[in-house]
Amino acid sequence: MSVTLSRRTRTVPSLSLLTMASLLLSSCAAEEGPSAADGEGYPMTVENCGEEVTFEAAPERIALLETAPVTILDELGLMNRVVARAGDFPAEYYSPELHSQIQEIESLSDDLDASGHLMISQEEVVAHSPDLALGQPDGVERDGLETAGVNLLIQELYCPEPAAEASFETVYAEIETYGEIFGEQEAAQELIGDLEDRVEAVAEQAEGEDRTAAVLYPTVGGGSSYAYGNRSMAHPQLEAAGFENVFADADERVFEAQLEELVDRDPDVLILLYQGEEAGVEETIASLPGAESMTAVQEDQVHTQLFNFTEPATPLSVKGLEQISEHFRAEER
């Protein structure tokens, strides 16, 4: 903007009065008609999970197939473009106003399996004529959606081959991508600036913290428990909160945790993720054979947290970081 104005300033003195009048009339006419910026930057192509996704225009009809993108869409003023949703959208993630808005959107399915995965058919999604689907539950394929004219975006951390070690830059990159796709770059940068300040504030409070920690996803009622390595958002969360991730050497996002290894690494702090009901989550870990010998269990340094407050990379990850920090700083007071 400033460059354009300075160029006009240099050019105006050499224009005749007639030319200036003509330009003014043209300017008025342009203001009365459609903006010249409409459609600027399209078509555009972004890379998603190694696939090129091309947008001929900013998407107008969004199908939400996971909860995670909601906070980005809301901060960029895009929730009015969501025409359908699927999955569970816990009120704890959102303001009362935003949660009420979500409830007014038609729900395709809230059927989750025991591990929290959404069950939905591709046909149900396509039937609502979206031009963009966010999230890829079981039964939904990129090729099938593209054939129906629907673009698909998957959170980078959920890609079959996710990027290297996760960081809060992963959050900011997701926001930038949404800003570019929808032409909301300025709002995206404002959001990123706010999140950066919040992460920095937590990191400053964590100076001097020297405890170790692990982030787990227990299966309530029996079954495997899972741990999070350096390709998950759990890793930068722990680092920003001042903790050392005992599974920082695991070069993957999530993996089945072996009880013996968990006990051997003996984290000072445990953060347990869950979806659905919180009841039984902490007890599931505490009741495992040998768990009573872990420092975190002995000293009651355990915090339970809804899954999206950690994964994937969204503003909720920053909120989750703040909750972790507040919980364990409160324990120290």
UniProtKB/TrEMBL annotation:
Residues 61-332 form the Fe/B12 periplasmic-binding domain. InterPro entries: ABC_Transporter_SBP, ABC_transptr_periplasmic_BD. Pfam families: Peripla_BP_2. Gene3D superfamilies: Nitrogenase molybdenum iron protein domain (3.40.50.1980). Keywords: Signal. It comes from the Bacteria. Residues 1-29 form the signal peptide. Belongs to the bacterial solute-binding protein 8 family. This is Fe3+-hydroxamate ABC transporter substrate-binding protein. It comes from Nesterenkonia cremea. The lineage of its organism: Bacteria, Bacillati, Actinomycetota, Actinomycetes, Micrococcales.
